[in-house]
Amino acid sequence: MNPQHPDFSDEKAFKHWLNQFDPNDQEPDYLLERFIAGINLLGIDVYRSSLWLPTAHPELWGTQIVWSRDTGSQLFRRDHSITSTPTYLNTPGQEVYEQRKTLQWKLEGNADALPYPLLREVKEEGGTDYLMIPFLTENVFEVPWITFSTKKSGGFTNKEIETLNALCEPFQWKTRVIVQKMASKSLLSVYLGDSAAQKVMEGKFKRGTGERIKSIIWFCDLRGFTKLSDNYNDETLVGILDQYFECISKPIEDNDGEILKFIGDAVLAIFPTNENVNLACTHALKAAEQALENLEHWSNEPDRPNLQSGISLHLGEVLYGNIGGSSRLDFTVIGSAVNIASRVESLCKSTYPILATKAFQECIETGNMVSIGKKELRGLKEHYEIFTLKKYLDN
Fold first, then answer.
1. Contacts of 140 (CB under 8 A, 6+ apart)
2. SS3 389
3. Torsion 175-26-45-113 (CA) sign
4. Against a cut of 0.90, is the pTM above it?
5. Rounded distance between C-alpha atoms, residue 18 and residue 36, angstroms
C-alpha cells in the first residue's frame, strides 16, 4: 500500500472514498490496492485480485493489474496479439469477454474438473473461490472486469457476492476515469510523442504558441522508395515501411529522442539538449548509427529489400509547439535549423549515410567525425561545413 495513503480508518471512510473523486486514483495499481483494502475492511477475505482496463491504442489492447496479499501489485501491458496466445485463450478472461456476466468458480472440488489452468493455479495457492465481475459497457470491444479470490473455507457467501457486486457499481466509474485518461494519454503519445502529449494534456500549448528550445534536429529519408513502390503492392509496401520505421524509431526513443512526425518515408525527430548539449549530441549520433545497423540487419534476411537511409544531424534553436488551422493542428518544430537539417540530409544521396553540421560536430567529444568540406545547401545562401563519420572515409 502506498505509505502516503494509509488504509481506511473505518467503513464510512471507505464508502466515502468509493463515491468521491480522489486525484490519487489516477494510478491503476493504487486504485486496486485501495479498493481491496476497503473490501477486506468489511470482513470479506480477498487475498488475490486482478483488474483489466482496456485501452484505445493501435498497439496496446489494455492494462492488467494483478494484486496479491503476498506480492502486492504487478502491472502488465497487453498488446493486441495476446488474444491469440495462451495468456488469453482458454482463460476466464476470454469467457467473461464473451458472456459479459458475473462468473464464479468454486475451487474446493477436484482440480482436474476446473475448466481453466488459471483456476487450477489459484487452487494450488490455497484459493477456495474465484469470482469475476465485468463492468457495464456498450462498447463491444471494451469489457473491463475485476476478479476476486479467497482462501476462506467454503468460498464467498451469497451475501458477500451480493456486496461485491454492489461495491463494483461505484468502483467501475472510478476505473472509467483511469481508462479515459490512459486512452487519451496513450493515443496522444502514439501520434505526438510522450513529451508533446504531456504538454498538450497539461494545456501548455495553444495554436500559434510554443517554446524556444535548443535541440539536435534529426532528419532521415528512405532511399529508393519509388523503386519499392513499383516492386510491391500497397499492402506489402505498408508492411515494409512499418519495419523501416521500427528500425529507425527504436534507437531514437532509446536514446532520449522524440519523434515528431513521419513525412511519407522521412522521419523528423529532436533530441532536446536539456542543458547538456554534449550528451544529447552523443545520444543522437549513437541513435543514427544504431538505426543504420538495424536497417542492415533487417535487410540481410532472405527475400527482403535492401533498405538504406540518409540521416542528418544539426544543432540549433527551434520553436517547439502548435501550428495549423483552428480545427486541425500539427505539433512540430519550426525554424531555420529545421531547414538546414533537411537540406543536409539531401546531400546523403551523393555522399555518406550520416552527415552533420559543424554546430553538431563541435559538441561531439569523440574525434570520430571528419570534415568533407563546405557544401552548398539548396535554397540557402551560406555554405556549411559538413562532417561525416571517419569510418565511411576509411572504407
1. none
2. strand
3. positive
4. no
5. 11
